[in-house]
Amino acid sequence: MTTADLVRWGLAGATFAAAVATVRDYERWRALGQGGIPHGAKGWLQVTYLRTRMRETKDPAVHLPFIGEAGDGRWLTQLPHRDGERPRIGRYPVPHRQLDQPGSLRARVAVLDRFDARAAGSPGVLGYRLSAFERHNDAITLLDLDKAPAATRLSKGEVAHIHPGDGSMHMILSPSDAVTALEAGWAERHPLAGMYGEPLTYLMVYAPRSPEEADVVGQLLDAAVGYATGASEITAD
Q: Which regions of the chain are under pLDDT 70?
């Protein structure tokens, strides 16, 4: 076998390995389910580019420059620190999903009940609308954006939504409350937060593993609603 033959075989082997890796990556992405982009080859190509734009997700310091600006406030009391390791998160920015620690059915139902109560509790102010980000899941949405903070206007009124498959959620918090949630380990930023129409405080809240954790998630939801609606702050500096 000549050197040229060896080179050709080497190139063929590398091409085959790359093709196998590409197919596996595509299949892993498809297995996460539908998100806010087409759930096929076109969407996977978009995500492949977006992966080059992903940012760090857990540092609270990102939000410090925005504390005290117009619309900011504190709607969270001091949160207990979330026990254990954070869950593993998928390598893809869309759909942004939790891969383990899916939580208990009882806790997830409790959170869904909290969402339903919030959506129904303020007729004409809040309601369920199709998520502008997910496009397959309903989101609690602020119906009148005239006095909404900039982040809520950017999200077209979206406040929070649940991912039925893994039990995680996305919520938009105030900068001050985002710091509290991140420091206590209950959430992380979306890896594209601050880009492509996503507010910088667009956070993934992890699925609750117990009724006690569901109560904390309920506090986070109340804070997201308080921020969007401009309700009176729960705490004051």
A: 1, 3-17, 234-237
Amino acid found at 188: E
Q: Are the CB atoms for 83 and 210 separated by under 8 Å? A: no
Q: Where are the domains of the chain?
A: 3-51, 57-229
pLDDT tens, residue by residue, 4-37? 655 565 555 566 567 778 989 999 999 999 888 9
- DSSP letters, the chain, are --HHHHHHHHHHHHHHHHHHHHHHHHHHHHHT---SS-SSHHHHHHHHHHGGG------GGGGGGGTTSTT------PPPPPPSPPPPB-S-SSS--B-S----HHHHHHHHHHHHHHHHHSTTTEEEEE-TTTSSSEEEEES--TT--HHHHHTTTEEEEE-TTT--EEEE--HHHHHHHHHTTSEEE-TTTTSTT--TTEEEEPPPSSHHHHHHHHHHHHHHHHHHHTPPPSS--
Other C-beta atoms lying within 10 Å of the C-beta of residue 47: 21
**Among residues 33, 54, 52, 89, which one has the least CA distance to residue 198?**
54
**Contact predicate 158/172, CB 8 Å:** yes
Q: Report the alpha-carbon distance of residue 103 to residue 168 in Å, rounded.
A: 9
Residue type, 179: V
Residue 152 · residue 125 · CB < 8 Å? no
- The answer to pTM > 0.70 is yes
